[in-house]
Amino acid sequence: MSNAPLPLINPVPLPLDKELVLKVIPMPADTNGNGDIFGGWVMAQVDLAGSVLPARHVQGRMATVAVNEFIFKQPVRVGDILSFFSSVTRVGRTSITVQVEVYAERFRSQGQYVKVTEASLTYVAIDDEGRPRPIPR
Description:
This protein has one helix at residues 39-58; strands at residues 19-24, 62-72, 81-91, 95-105, 113-125. It is mostly beta strands. It has one domain (19-125): Hotdog Thioesterase (Thiol Ester Dehydrase, Chain A), CATH 3.10.129. Strands 1-3-4-5-2 form a five-stranded antiparallel β-sheet, covered by helices on one side. The longest helix has 20 residues, at 39-58. It is elongated.
């Protein structure tokens, strides 16, 4: 078996209009029955990454209220270095919507990236009783 890097499908540059908010490497315990990374694990990481920018605005408790869109573009594999980029797309009175894009740097193709997931999520600022509250301006 050759140790040559596998060719990437559609390698892309990393986004310049979003902020890097999380980097993580999935491990064997995160796999599904096919040996790829379980989609639910990816979704949890996207939710964590998506909360970073809203937390700066909300200045307190918040909750995920909607996953508006979630697209798995390519599988994630054990050992991929995942980079999560986010940007705020909307700020309302009590809620914030963000776009998250996930890029994989494949274990054998270091320095080249492929977009594996993109999502849109909405978070709402909440008070101590869990009720929506205004976002500080």
